[in-house]
Amino acid sequence: MERIRIIPTGDEIRAGIVRDLDSPMVMSSILRQYPTAEVLRVAPVNDTALDILAALTAAADSGADLAILIGGSGGGHRFSPTLGKDFSHSAMDEFVQNGCAREIYGKNGHLWCRLVCGKRNGMMAINLPGPYVEAEAAINAFLAAEPERMDFEKINHAMAEAVFAQYPAGSAEKR
Amino acid sequence: MNRQEYIIAAADKSILKIFGVSIKGLNTRDLEQRLSERLHTLVRVIGVTGQQIEMDVYGIEPEQIRRDEQALLQAVSLVEGVTANELCTLAVSEKIVDVDIQKVPDKPYYGCARERWVQF
Question: Which residues pair with B82 in a beta bridge?
């Protein structure tokens, strides 16, 4: 993991309405594990599947080993018109050629988070939820899951468990 | 996708919305921490525009949030990146309602169950 791209998403991040706290945290976590890595945080990407896909493709074309997409992992606009547009996971589905995904649903049937992990050509790609605490849990789980081994199932499982653990304890079940 | 798995989080939550604020450079972590301390529960920012903030509040009764309205609005006004206007107010939804587990997807899908019920 020598060339890493952090790709924050969200119109509210791009407009400066919300400060991007996640990217510096993610960069710090990465540098703790890979002190010689070249880590680039690209400009925030608009909430459209095409823009996010283009950012992932640009990262791959630049020779990156890893792209980390932040935000847009829930159902968002699909169930509330006042929420942001969540297209990160759909762009990831389009981009990744082989990989794994896990979805966390609320008991109301709404998608709370979809995490995708996979690879296209030589670049691994993962996505993180936008809320800081969940993003921090997910990136730390990713780094602890030996990402160099490219065991996407193990990585995806670890990240989903870490995000899931951020919800109130003892109140969940798996299928 | 080679493999997919689905997890159901059975947590109770309500949606809390704050209106009548001007937002620029919001520190969401600061906001979550201040409201979590005030409400003694987990709070997550899930949506922000220039004039309103939408949050998930887990595990407490909506009425408890409403009773604490003034203190909550005061806490929000202290958050970095928020300017509270005179008409600053809040609204709280009722707790989310359970759906039949069979209604949750069992195949790859990146929308949400409600989307299918209304056939988007």
Answer: B23
Query: Is the Cβ of B59 closer than 8 Å to some Cβ of chain A?
Result: yes
The beta-strand segments (E) located in A26-110 are 38-41, 66-70, 98-106
Q: Within 13 A of A120's CA, how many CA atoms are on the CB side? A: 21
Locate the chain B residue with the closest alpha carbon to A164: B9
pLDDT tens digits, B7-21? 877 778 888 999 999
Domain locations in chain A? 3-174
pTM over 0.90: no
CB < 8 Å from A in window 30-49 of B? 32, 42, 44-49
Contact (CB, 8 A) for B115 and A79: yes
- What lies within 8 Å, CB to CB, of B92 at 6+ separation is B14, B15, B16, B17, B57, B62, B65, B66
Residues in chain A within 8 Å Cβ distance of B28:
18-19, 21, 131-132
Superfamily of segment(s) A3-174: MoaB/Mog-like domain (3.40.980.10)
B82 neighbourhood in chain A, CB within 8 Å:
none
Q: What is the pLDDT of residues A50-84, one digit of tens each?
A: 999 999 999 999 999 999 999 988 765 555 555 56
Beta bridge partners of residue B92, listed in sequence order: B16
